[in-house]
């Protein structure tokens, strides 16, 4: 969309405000709003100034001036504001006009540019399945003398005996019993459908929605795949709509990987493939699971670099509360067709040559999608460049339930790091694949690791409520 068309859209839709947005290192969106009367063609040339020192991990106060440069292709009308507002995603530039190397969106774009220089293909497609919970009540506190969290849901398994509902209507979802039941067990059909309606009106192509496995309102809505940066843009839009529709319905949505103990967590299974023009490069019907040798090397790269990759695709301490065996968590660094206990699954149901893809099941939605998708692509490209063979490297295929294997066999299978600190250690030891083509800078990686170390320490030094259960009577 040209600048002129955006200006015409502002006039034709009586837009009163234009919301300029960018993404921080954590993956959260930030914004500055201008009255539409202050937006003209020069705005898209000169950008919108902001204070980079107030964004964690961006700039020091002595060099705080930064500029948002709008990407007109991302414009859409905000579905929630009282005053007609147009939202536009931006790239971050320094005052001298250079792309900022810590800008996650610019990193995603550099990854796409790097792909084209490799000669492997022209386009990488991504499709995340970002799961979430819809709760009715959320309370938490962490202070010197208090530490707790409490969540509630009208459909939660623990509410079968609750009286406060004014007559308990039963049909609660058991632990691990929430996968695609119909109403009245699935009480959230209408709110998910409303989320889908708003997403469609905002430009997302939605493929389906359903209740997920866990009790207490776990959900999934799938939107159509697209190129790397566009998919990351779409995921931010998706999360924005999910959380704001939930708010309108008097509920709250969270993408936190493990908000509940003892039931499945929320992942972000990421499907990806590479095309050369219109030609899919991952398909070969004469090979295992219809995967080409190039695709197998791509898998080899992801699994080989997975310990470091997980520092970016699972970048929270809570991520590792989900990555434990027994809850469909893909902790095993192997690949398989149709096997959800493997870190890399190859979908085989109703797959066409153009739909042939791999699914990396380990990530979760605490990841910054621009960084996660870029890092995945770079790991896969490194596997292609080096001709890594995942079978020769011992990554499978494992076409059986890995959780049921004898302990001796399980010992032969590599697992994901057990903590965020372990993943960060792996990233520090194996970051060369990320700096190929100048996609990630070493400065970015060092800064990222330092910020995540602070998060890990903030959790590790705090007293945990369960420690009272274990040790108070010592």
TrEMBL record:
Question: How cofactor binds (record note)?
Answer: Binds 2 Mg(2+) ions per subunit.
Annotated residues for binding of ATP:
207, 223-225, 271-273, 340, 354
Which PROSITE patterns does this entry report, sorted A to Z?
GLNA_1, GLNA_ATP, GS_BETA_GRASP, GS_CATALYTIC
The entry's cellular-component GO terms read: cytoplasm; membrane
Name the cofactor(s) required for activity, per the record: Mg(2+)
NCBIfam families, A to Z: GlnA (TIGR00653)
Name of this chain's protein: Glutamine synthetase
Q: Could you tell me which species this protein originates from?
A: Paenibacillus paeoniae
As recorded in Swiss-Prot or TrEMBL, the protein's gene is named glnA
């Amino acid at each position: 969309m040209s600048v002129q068309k955006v200006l015409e859209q502002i006039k034709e839709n009586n837009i009163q405000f234009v919301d300029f947005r960018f993404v921080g290192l954590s993956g959260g969106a930030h914004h500055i709003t201008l009255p539409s009367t202050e937006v003209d063609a020069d705005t898209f040339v000169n950008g919108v100034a902001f204070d980079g020192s107030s964004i964690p991990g961006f700039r020091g106060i002595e060099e705080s001036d930064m500029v948002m440069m709008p990407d007109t292709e991302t414009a859409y009308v905000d579905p929630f504001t009282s005053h007609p507002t147009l939202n536009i995603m931006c790239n971050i530039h320094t005052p001298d006009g250079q792309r900022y190397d810590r800008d996650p969106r610019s990193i995603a774009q550099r990854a796409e540019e790097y792909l084209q220089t490799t000669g492997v293909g022209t386009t990488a497609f991504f499709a995340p399945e970002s799961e979430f919970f819809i709760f009715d009540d959320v309370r938490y506190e962490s202070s010197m003398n208090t530490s707790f969290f409490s969540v509630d849901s009208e459909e939660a398994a623990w509410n079968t005996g609750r009286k406060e509902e004014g007559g308990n209507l039963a049909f609660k979802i058991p632990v691990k019993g929430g996968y695609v039941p119909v109403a009245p067990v699935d009480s959230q059909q209408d709110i998910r459908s409303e989320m889908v309606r708003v997403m469609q009106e905002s430009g997302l192509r939605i493929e389906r929605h359903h209740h997920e496995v866990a009790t207490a309102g776990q959900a999934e809505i799938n939107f159509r795949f697209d190129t790397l940066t566009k998919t990351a843009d779409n995921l931010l839009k998706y999360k924005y709509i999910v959380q704001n529709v939930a708010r309108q319905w008097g509920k709250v949505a969270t993408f936190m990987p493990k908000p509940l103990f003892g039931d499945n967590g929320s992942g972000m299974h990421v499907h990806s493939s590479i095309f050369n023009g219109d030609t899919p490069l991952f398909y070969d019907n004469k090979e295992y699971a219809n995967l080409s040798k190039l695709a197998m090397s791509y898998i080899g790269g992801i699994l080989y670099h997975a310990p470091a990759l997980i520092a970016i695709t699972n970048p929270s301490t809570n991520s590792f509360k989900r990555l434990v065996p027994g809850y469909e968590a893909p902790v095993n660094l192997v690949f398989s067709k149709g096997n959800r206990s493997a870190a890399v699954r190859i979908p085989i149901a109703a797959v066409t040559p153009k739909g042939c893809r791999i699914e990396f099941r380990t990530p979760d939605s605490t990841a910054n999608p621009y960084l996660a998708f870029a890092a995945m692509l770079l790991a896969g490209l490194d596997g292609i460049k080096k001709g890594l063979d995942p079978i020769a490297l011992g990554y499978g295929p494992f076409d059986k339930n890995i959780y049921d294997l004898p302990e001796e066999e399980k010992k032969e299978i590599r697992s994901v790091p057990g903590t965020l600190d372990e993943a960060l250690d792996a990233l520090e030891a194996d970051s060369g694949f990320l700096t190929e083509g100048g996609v990630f800078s070493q400065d970015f990686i060092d800064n990222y690791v330092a910020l995540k170390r602070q998060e890990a320490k903030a959790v590790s030094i705090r007293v945990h409520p369960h420690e009272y259960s274990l040790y108070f009577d010592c």
